[in-house]
């Protein structure tokens, strides 16, 4: 396993994709299928992780996802991702999606989630990843917000599990 553990700026991982929602990706109401949105999130998150780790990365997990607003046919989906934390071989990525109405310019947050990817070497084995470094105050703020939001969501999940059992 590669044991280099240099630091890479958060900015190296920032990735943005845009997709136009076409009828073949919608439900009977003309809104984005959840699976299509999850697919976009997984692709954007993987690109972010690979840019950060400079390695092939595979999806290990996706946290809880709430669809808080629809994306309607003809609207543009903007998917943004960045690496905010690492383990020894894993990269945690925050992925945000918002919709844009190209006629009015109106933007709406649609969903956010956290995905974890594992970096793999040429033989398909997990390999070490660099640490995240924040070079600007804006990057520090992005990272802090992601860490805090994910921690809050994990605590909420644990609390719900305790209530259910």
Automatic annotation (TrEMBL):
HotDog ACOT-type domain mapped to chain residues: 11-123
Entry keywords, A to Z: Hydrolase
A Pfam family the protein falls into: 4HBT
UniProt key word Hydrolase: yes
Top-level taxon: Archaea
Keyword Hydrolase: yes
GO molecular function: fatty acyl-CoA hydrolase activity
EC number(s) from the headed UniProt entry: 3.1.2.20
InterPro entries to which the protein is assigned, alphabetical: Cytosol_ACT, HOTDOG_ACOT, HotDog_dom_sf, Thioestr_dom
UniProt-listed PANTHER family: ACYL COENZYME A THIOESTER HYDROLASE (PTHR11049), CYTOSOLIC ACYL COENZYME A THIOESTER HYDROLASE (PTHR11049:SF24)
Protein name in UniProt: Acyl-CoA thioesterase
Organism: Halovenus salina
Phylogenetic lineage: Archaea, Methanobacteriati, Methanobacteriota, Stenosarchaea group, Halobacteria
């Amino acid at each position: 396993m590669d044991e280099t553990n240099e630091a890479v700026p958060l900015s190296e991982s920032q990735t943005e994709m845009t997709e136009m929602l076409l009828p073949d990706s919608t439900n009977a109401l003309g809104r984005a299928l959840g699976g299509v949105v999850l697919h976009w999130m997984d692709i954007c998150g993987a690109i972010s992780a690979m840019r950060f780790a400079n390695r092939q990365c595979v999806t290990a997990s996706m946290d809880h996802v709430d669809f808080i607003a629809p994306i309607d046919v003809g609207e543009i989906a903007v998917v943004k991702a960045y690496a905010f934390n690492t383990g020894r071989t894993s990269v945690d990525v925050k992925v945000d999606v918002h919709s844009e109405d190209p006629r009015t310019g109106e933007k709406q947050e649609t969903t956010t989630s956290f995905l974890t990817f594992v970096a793999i070497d040429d033989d398909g084995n997990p390999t070490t990843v660099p640490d995240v470094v924040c070079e600007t105050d804006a990057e520090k703020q992005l990272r802090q917000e992601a860490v805090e939001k994910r921690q809050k969501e994990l605590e909420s999940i644990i609390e719900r599990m305790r209530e259910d059992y």
